[in-house]
Amino acid sequence: MKNQLFRKKSVEQIIADSEAKGSGMMKILGVRDLVSLGIAAIVGAGIFSTIGLAAYNGGPAVSMLFVFVAFACVFTALSYAQFASTVPVSGSAYTYAYVAFGELFAWIIGWALVLEYAVSNMVVAISWSQYFVSMLEGFGIHIPKWLTMAPGYALDAHAKMLEVGAEQLTGIDRIALEAYQTAPRIGDIPIVFDLPAGLITVLVTWLVYIGIKESQRASNIMVLIKVGIIVAVILGGAFFVKPENWTPFAPNGLSGVLSGVAAVFFAFIGFDSISTTAEECKNPQRDLPRAMIYCLVICAILYVLITLVLTGMVNYTELNVKDPLAYVFDYVGFNHMAGVISVTSVIAITSALLVFQLAQPRIWMTMSRDGLLWKRFATIHPKYKTPSFATIVTGIVVTIPALFFKMDFFVDLTSVGTFFAFILVCAGVLYMDKSGLSAKSKFKVPYVNGKYLVGIGFIVGLVLMYFYGQDSLAEWKTLGAGNVILHKSLVLVFWLTWLALSIFAYKHNFSLLPVIGILINLYLMSELGASNWIIFILWLAAGLVIYFLYGYKNSKLRIQE
User: Fold this and answer.
1) Residue span of the signal peptide, if any (predicted)?
2) Whole domain around residue 294: which residue ranges?
3) Mean pLDDT across 293-316
C-alpha cells in the first residue's frame, strides 16, 4: 500500500492520457490570451476591495507589501513555468505533484486547489454582488435588502439590535437589520439570501460551459476595460496626490503592514490558474512560462502604483471601505470618475470569476482521468469541447455557498490552500533537478547553487531575529505551552524547515530560487490565524476519507501496475 500511495506518473504517461481518444480539447490560446486570462484572474476583487483594508492597516507602506508578495510569487511562478513546460497538461499543481511526489500528494494538492479556485470564487461572487448592488443604487435601482446578503449578516444584526438597540447600529449592520425586518418568512425564520451572487455564478458557469473561445473573447474584452480604467485612476489620481499623506509611511509598524498579508496575497491569487488551460494552448511549453511571468510583473506594477496613488490622495485612515477606488475620487469631488469606477469594478470582478470558474473543472477533469474521481468528471462535451459535467458541478459548488454564506469566512482559508500548493510546486522543482527530470524541461528555473547560501541565510536570519525581534521573543516568554502550539507552531515549522533545507542544500547542491520560494510561502503561511489552519486540516482530513474510499481503489495507475 505504501508503494502505491507514493507511486509517480511519468511525463510521457500523463501526456498520453491527456491525448487519449475522447479527451481532446480545442487548442486556440496564445501568449496574449494567456496573459489576458492571468490579468483577469489577478486584477479582480483584490484591487477593487481588499486593497483598502490592507492600506488602512499598514498605511502607505502596504505598497512595499505588494512588492514583497509579488517577489514571493515570482519564485513560485518560475517553478510553475518549469513544470508547465515539462508537463503541458490541464491539472496545474495536482499534475505536477503526481510527477514529483506521487499519488497521495497529488490528491492532497488537488483537494487543496478546490480551496484556491472554488472557494475563492465564492468570495469573488459575494464581492461582485456588493459592487453590483451599489452600482444599481447609483442608477436609482434598489433591490430589496433581503435579496442581497447572506442570512448570517441579518441574524447578527438582529442579535445586536436586541443587545444595544436599533439606533446604535451603523453601516452594514443597519442594512442587514432592514433585510431581517423586511424579509418574507417561513414561520419565524426570515428568508434572506444573496441573489446577485448566485445569478452571476450561474451566468459565468454557462459561459465557461459553452466554450473556451467564448470565455477567451469575454475575458479579453473585460481585461481591456479594467486595465484601461486602472491606468486612468493612476494617471488621474496622480494630480490629487498630497505627499504629506505618505507620512508616516508605516504608522502601525511592520506588524501593521504584515497584517494585510492574507488580503494582499488574495489579490495575487490566480496567476497559476492559466496553467489549467495547458491543453487549450497552441504551444503550451513555450507560451505558459512567458504568460505567467508577464502577467505577474504587469499586475505587480499596477498594484504598487495604485496603492501609492490611493494613500497619496487621502489619508490611509479613510480607506477602510469596500470600494476604495471609487471612494477616493468621491472624496476629492471627482464624482463622475467614481461612477465610472463603480461600473468598471463590476466588470473586473466578473472577469476574475470567469477565470477561476474555468480553472476548477479542468483540475477535476484531470483527477478523473487518473481514476481518483468519478469518471463522469472527465467527460468532454462533443460540441463545446469543454469538461461539461465538471463545469456544472463547479457551478453548483460555488453558487449555493455564495447564496447563503458570509464572505469573511472564506478569505484566509483560500490563502492557506494556495500557499500549500505553491510550496509543493517549488519543492517539486528541487525533485526534478535531483532526478534528472529537468533535462526534459523547455524552460528551467535559473540555477543558482544554494550549497552554502541557504545555510548562511539561516544563520543571518537567526542573528537578525536576536537583534531586531526582541519584542516577538518577549511575547513568546509570556505564552503558555498551549498558546505557543496554537498560535506559534507554524513559526517553529518555518525555522525548522529552513534548518532542514540548509542541510539538504549542502548535501545535494539545491537550486537557490525554489528554496527561496518555499521559505517565503511558508513564512506567509505562518502569518495566518490558527483557526484557518484548523479548518484547513479538517478539510484535508475529509479529502483523505474520499481518497481512501474511492480514489485509492479506482486509481488507474494502481490498476495498471
Assistant:
1) none
2) 2-139+197-429
3) 86
